[in-house]
Specification:
four-stranded antiparallel sheet; Aminopeptidase; about 450 residues; homodimer; Alpha-Beta Plaits; alpha+beta; six-stranded mixed sheet
Amino acid sequence: MDTVRNYVQSNLDRFLEELFVLIRIPSISAQSKHQADMLRCAEQWKVFLLAAGVDRAEVLPTKGHPAVFAEKIIDPSLPTVLVYGHYDVMPAEPFELWDSPPFEPEIRDGKIYARGADDDKGQSFMHAKAFEYLVREKQLKCNVKFLIEGEEEIGSANLEAFCVEHKDMLRCDLILVSDTSILEADLPSITTGLRGLAYWQIELSSSAIDLHSGLFGGAVANPAVELSRILSQLIDDKGRITIPHFYDDVEAVSQAERDLIAQIPFDVAAYKKEIGINDIHGEEGYSTIERTGIRPSLDACGIWSGYTGEGTKTVLPAKAYAKLSARLVPNQQSEKIAQLVAEHIRSITPPYVKVKVDFLHGAESYVYPIDSEAYRAAERAYEKVFGKRPLPVRSGGSIGVVPLFEKVLGVKPLLIGFGLKTDAIHSPNENYPVEMFIKGIETIIAFYKELTIDKKN
Amino acid sequence: MDTVRNYVQSNLDRFLEELFVLIRIPSISAQSKHQADMLRCAEQWKVFLLAAGVDRAEVLPTKGHPAVFAEKIIDPSLPTVLVYGHYDVMPAEPFELWDSPPFEPEIRDGKIYARGADDDKGQSFMHAKAFEYLVREKQLKCNVKFLIEGEEEIGSANLEAFCVEHKDMLRCDLILVSDTSILEADLPSITTGLRGLAYWQIELSSSAIDLHSGLFGGAVANPAVELSRILSQLIDDKGRITIPHFYDDVEAVSQAERDLIAQIPFDVAAYKKEIGINDIHGEEGYSTIERTGIRPSLDACGIWSGYTGEGTKTVLPAKAYAKLSARLVPNQQSEKIAQLVAEHIRSITPPYVKVKVDFLHGAESYVYPIDSEAYRAAERAYEKVFGKRPLPVRSGGSIGVVPLFEKVLGVKPLLIGFGLKTDAIHSPNENYPVEMFIKGIETIIAFYKELTIDKKN
């Protein structure tokens, strides 16, 4: 380990300067004025990957922003690792809330402050530097490919077509993604699951136009009240979703995994204070971490109807709307759930109002097996660097590209992230501790050394 | 009757030309750019009332737009009638939906098209012309006062203070208001009741800020769903409001009055078609007319929470809001109901969310006794002119000034209106049939002739 630490320490200034070169390019995928910056950032990645030791690197077109592909094939009969990252970043507005300019990286109190410092320039660049070490020190025991895309922050809409088109080029036996967080700086964890998603819009109509609430109130159904009746019926008093067959496909989580979850430190008082709630609330029989990690949920993301301005307007609304979303767990299928929920809502809508349920978006859940060889190698790598065995954590969120790789390439990505929840990703003053940048590189190197996987593809 | 008809017919062109002079002044109380028009319209009313035969007429200041007062005292020992009307009109936007300019009155197919043609220039001017007839033909048997205000369409906020200040001047034994409608052109009716109103805003809070619906969904209460639970609990399956003691003070309506209500023609199919609903819906055991006339109601006038824009945003909202209104019947008191509803909502809100209930506005219900001498005189007057006995109808709406007069002056206004539901008041192409203008004048004259009231004040 000392060799690794020495290498990282003696090259740290250069590593950071290279990372800052990437950060200074405002590669904001959502803003068309930065289109030239996108290509510039992709080209810069290509330069850095070539310098790190790949055999070839290319900037490839997609239907949107270009993607960077690079590879070092030391022996085609050896297994291949594919590293996925993204060079695009979120917009930096509102600029006035930043303490230093978002695209002029600055180190304060041991942290790099800049848009992309963590997400995902900082995290993905650790892979380039770990790879550089393995190449230079002649310790690379497998083939390595890099795919650095430019549209993650805008939904990776063109990535599936790209992966299908370049399926042979992307063939691999293991995929590594560093775009997640660990529990605390001194409490490593590995994200072993992501929830899926289904999202609907509901429109309830009563009359053709808004009515006078005096002349019609009491004689004509109120769609806002009827919508409330529907929403209130979807979850029971015990926090269980009432839609028939909703839980049919939910994977039973073993007691062993629930025991591991129970080991994750969780301070209810701190949690309540942090988000400003009176109390936690959810499905009976599950802890907060289980409720977001291994159990599905159903939420209204928005509701609206009638008059929402200042003061009073006495109106009986014609229509009422809701945006509804479910977070799904293995093995729930978003399309099937979409159908079940739409049918159930239609079935409980009374005949005196009209209902429309539109399925807007779906994403699949994801789980990485903790009894796999790669997971165990990652466990050992984190333990070596952090001094603690990492805890497996199922995140409540969804990362669309992760199930996408499983679907198109047939390989489950392993999520070895090094972010902290204090990194303010997507927010002003995004930052990344230099310590995490160093430990990340060291852990990735340790992982490659621990790894003994079979060639599958 | 023939003398009256002859008088109206032979003076009709002048009556209409005078009304058009009032209509051509855009006295829109809500728009400050029309402030000079307000004074101009009040002064014009003063001129017309003096010409009609009052002893004195004045334009008096209020804290808002001025009011017109006029009177003819033929003998202080005789009873006094106070006529209330308003010279202000609603805004005319959207102008492009008018077939002729709103402030250039035009007669088409026997109807006067203009803003204010019915509400309330047309209806209140009938009183001036009926009074003119009685004075000129020396048939006036009582004292008459006129109060024509300029703020009815913006809530008459300064009228109570004005009435208190001028209580002696406004002293009277009967108040007449023509600002309501009859059932059909050939089916006269008298509005014998108005509902009261209570209006609240509810704010439900869960977290301090909007949360990520993936990372927190299932573990933190959703205020939009909790609001739905609350709203859905306020009315039961039989359409009854569930708030304890809500119905305690509701006046029991006699079977005799319910029998009269049952005589009001009502075509469910036409009603459904007119407002575009699948079906009627309301409290069990009551007809549609009873549901809006003699029963209280509770409605959400608006609800909002979270993301309400296009497409999907996966957010767990921090707050959810509702605008809630109740229509009240005699003898419910708006302040007491406001309290009951707020307390009940607080009591059913679960401890893991915070709730705020603000009472925004209240108005009292109103009922005019159908066994009174003035009501019987009005019945006979309508029957003479329309050939049919008018039906007593309780309107579901609220007119704030009506209970106000009862409260401050101790006199219940009699609502003898002549509008039709096709008059499009407050809407583009407001109109008033010349036939109703004529019949209104004739009915008011007949009413004065039929009237035998005692001097009370």
